[in-house]
Amino acid sequence: MASNSNTSPHHSGNSSAKFNKDERTKVILPKDLNIVWGNDTRYWNINDVAELHQVSWLEVTGGVEGASAAKSYEVGFSVSLNPDAFGWGKYPIYIMIKRGKEEKVTWTKISINPNNQETQFEIKGRLLKSDHSTDIGKLSFGLYEVWSGKWKGGLKIHKAFVNQL
Questions:
Q1: How far is CA 80 from the centre of its chain?
Q2: Is 2 inside a domain boundary?
Q3: How far apart are CA 15 and CA 17, in angstroms?
Q4: 27-61 residues labelled b (16+ CB within 10 A) or e (exposed)
Q5: Rounded CA gap, 97 and 88, in Å?
Q6: How far apart are CA 38 and CA 9, in angstroms?
Q7: By the 8 A CB rule, do 160 and 33 touch?
């Protein structure tokens, strides 16, 4: 049976985001993110907001072209929790950032307060400039909680963003 990308359980976003000249912030909408299990409505609903119903494997990724080794970056997600959110607080989530072909990956550990419901808040990580590379390439990033195996739900992702610092 031939594989059809339309039948994949995963949502593939538009990965054409690129920093324009003199642009310091790039906003990535939920539909432009790659979301594991994102095409299965038992787990996610993706429209203007990516709303998590339930997963045990949280993996949301994206990228922006035109990242310079001479610059530092802040990557974040604007999120909120539904009143019926569950699975948050006990296990941390992580933001990953990687620039171009560099082997160094930055991980930021974040604890989400499960009582912080219905209020939008930001979770962020930073990648500092590199003194060892002149690479200009893709800045890849992700939001993960894949280690606990515990179910979590009720998270809304309103947008992702990348700031040049």
A1: 14
A2: no
A3: 6
A4: ebbbebbbbbbbbeeebbebeebbbbeebeebbbb
A5: 22
A6: 6
A7: yes
How many angstroms separate the CA atoms of 105 and 98, rounded?
A: 5
Strands 136-145, 93-99: parallel, antiparallel or unpaired by DSSP?
A: antiparallel
pLDDT at residue number 58: 97
Q: In which residue ranges of the chain is pLDDT below 50?
A: 1-5
Long-range CB contact pairs, 40-48, < 8 A, 24+:
40/9, 44/11, 46/11
The one-letter amino acid code at 125 reads G
3-state secondary structure of 124: strand
Q: Which residues in 17-135 belong to E strands, given as ranges?
A: 25-28, 34-35, 44-46, 50-52, 58-68, 73-86, 93-99, 105-110, 121-127
Any domain includes 123? yes
Output the domain CATH number for residue 140. 2.60.120.260
